[in-house]
């Protein structure tokens, strides 16, 4: 197996090799870098394992570069690393042996050989090493036939899978993440061991789980990972609200769609159109309120009234539990969940300017993302229906464009502020201020008055008069 390094990589690796030679310390490239090279994927950082003191090698290797990069030591992990000015990151670790206790994923660590270090790796495809030693520079060292597994697109643990996952349950998420990113299959025993050990995920910190979850979500076809998490039972522990979407009940021969698989289809559709993690989260959560609002009504069959409102309320709670950021990103997802039915309901009626204005006002600068979500939400198998919906959406888009051109409502703030109302009528903060402000906004959105200061000011004076407020001389 010939592995091709770029000229730049070759130059870097030769320097590390020279440093190792100087210290008489065997060293190897290992892990993700080797795997990604074989797969012809882009590589971003490199892991080096040496039989000896990793920090010493890192320091000696750093001096081969001009200027020498600063070496950082991570005592807790026993690793040292430096970043080159090109941004290339190199991490050094002394080869080690690990032994685990059942209550924690922090193993007892002791120095070991290359093979000890390969034994502790999570998957055969991640355990490949390339020698950087003068005698056999560039040789692939593959004790678990990882190369065959890469060729056959298989995720498999080098050791007993159940023990591997029990030792460090994060590896279950990693297995599913790699299967999703690389479109590999998880080997049967390995997959069964995930099912068996799924409940052990509880000992892993939420941040690490969410990190892997987000990597699954950012893959080109995230549904692969969600299906695997669902089938192995992991989803039950890490994201029960999503698991609750699954299943299709049937009463009197009337069923409803399985909202879990529908959501996955929407997520894949969004992923095909956008790389935005938060828009993908909006897809995941758009129907999350459905189980809580599901009813069977004699006249209508299955209904999910208000699921967008209930779903919107669930967003902050889910973000909090998953330790996702609670600021702007959360608000954006909540807004999209709340608004996800609006364009579709619009496209069913004669679209008035005022309905479009309200949509533009409520969605603000996220209108384009909302339209992507809504288009992705059409998962019917009926081609005619899909075609009709998409055409309707095109019409909604055109109408949004027209009204936006005319009224400039994106990121719009009504032309009269509370401050102006208080000054004009010589009043302090009180109920009138909010009421008049709302009335002005509504009048503009309904098209009763134009979106201009003078018209809004006159309207404000009239509203004040109705409330027996007197304009001061300054007005
Ligand atoms: P990516 O960069 O896409 O996340 P990676 O494989 O490089 O992939 P890292 O988390 O950087 O992922 O890990 C580097 C290497 O360390 C892996 O290839 C694997 O050999 C090993 N490794 C990482 N995490 C674990 C783990 N939990 N258990 C065993 N080995 C692991």
Automatic annotation (TrEMBL):
Residues 184-244 form the tRNA nucleotidyltransferase/poly(A) polymerase RNA and SrmB- binding domain. This is CCA tRNA nucleotidyltransferase. NCBIfam families: HDIG. It comes from Paraflavisolibacter caeni. Gene3D superfamilies: Beta Polymerase, domain 2, cca-adding enzyme, domain 2. Belongs to the tRNA nucleotidyltransferase/poly(A) polymerase family. InterPro entries: HD/PDEase_dom, HD_domain, HDIG_dom, NT_sf, PolA_pol_head_dom, PolyA_RNA-bd, tRNA_CCA-adding_enzyme. GO terms for biological process: tRNA processing. Residues 27-155 form the Poly A polymerase head domain. One of its GO terms (molecular function) is nucleotide binding. Its cofactor is Mg(2+). Keywords: Magnesium, Metal-binding, Nucleotide-binding, Nucleotidyltransferase, RNA-binding, Transferase, tRNA processing.
């Amino acid at each position: 197996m010939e592995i091709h390094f770029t000229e730049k990589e070759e130059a870097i690796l030769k320097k590390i090799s020279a440093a190792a030679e100087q210290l008489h310390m065997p060293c190897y490239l290992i892990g993700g870098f080797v795997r990604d090279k074989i797969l012809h994927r882009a590589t971003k950082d490199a892991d080096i394992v040496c039989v000896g003191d990793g920090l010493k090698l890192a320091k000696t290797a750093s001096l081969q570069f001009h200027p020498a990069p600063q070496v950082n030591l991570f005592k807790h992990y026993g690793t040292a690393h430096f970043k080159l000015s090109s941004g290339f990151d190199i991490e050094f670790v002394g080869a080690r042996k690990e032994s685990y206790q059942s209550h924690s994923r922090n193993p007892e660590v002791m120095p070991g050989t290359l093979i000890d270090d390969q034994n502790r790796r999570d998957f055969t495809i991640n355990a490949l090493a390339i020698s950087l030693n003068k005698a056999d520079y560039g040789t692939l060292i593959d004790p678990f036939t990882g190369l065959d597994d890469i060729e056959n697109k298989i995720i498999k643990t080098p050791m007993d899978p159940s023990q591997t996952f029990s030792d460090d349950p994060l590896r279950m998420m990693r297995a599913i993440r790699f299967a999703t990113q690389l479109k590999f299959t998880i080997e049967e025993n390995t997959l069964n061991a995930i099912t068996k050990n799924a409940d052990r995920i509880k000992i892993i910190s939420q941040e690490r789980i969410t990190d892997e979850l987000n990597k699954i979500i950012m893959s080109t076809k995230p549904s692969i990972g969600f299906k695997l998490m669902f089938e192995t039972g992991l989803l039950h522990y890490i994201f029960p609200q999503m698991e609750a979407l699954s299943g299709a009940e049937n009463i009197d021969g009337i069923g409803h769609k399985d909202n879990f698989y529908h959501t996955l289809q929407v997520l894949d559709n969004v992923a095909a159109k956008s790389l935005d993690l938060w828009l993908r989260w909006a897809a995941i959560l758009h129907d999350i309120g459905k189980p809580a609002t599901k009813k069977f009504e004699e006249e209508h069959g299955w209904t999910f009234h208000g699921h967008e409102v209930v779903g919107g309320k669930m967003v902050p709670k889910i973000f909090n539990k998953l330790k996702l950021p609670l600021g702007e990103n959360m608000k954006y997802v909540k807004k999209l969940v709340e608004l996800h039915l609006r364009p579709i309901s619009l496209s069913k009626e004669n679209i008035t300017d005022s309905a479009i204005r309200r949509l533009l006002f409520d969605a603000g600068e996220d209108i384009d993302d909302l339209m992507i979500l809504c288009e992705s939400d059409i998962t019917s198998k009926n081609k005619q229906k899909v075609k009709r919906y998409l055409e309707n959406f095109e019409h909604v888009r055109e109408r949004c464009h027209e009204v936006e051109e005319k009224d400039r409502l994106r990121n719009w703030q009504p032309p009269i502020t509370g401050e102006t109302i208080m000054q004009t009528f010589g009043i302090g903060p009180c109920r009138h201020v909010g009421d008049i402000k709302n009335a002005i906004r509504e009048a503009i959105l309904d098209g009763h008055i134009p979106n201009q200061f003078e018209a809004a000011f006159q309207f404000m004076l009239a509203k004040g008069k109705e409330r027996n407020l007197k304009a001061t001389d300054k007005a």
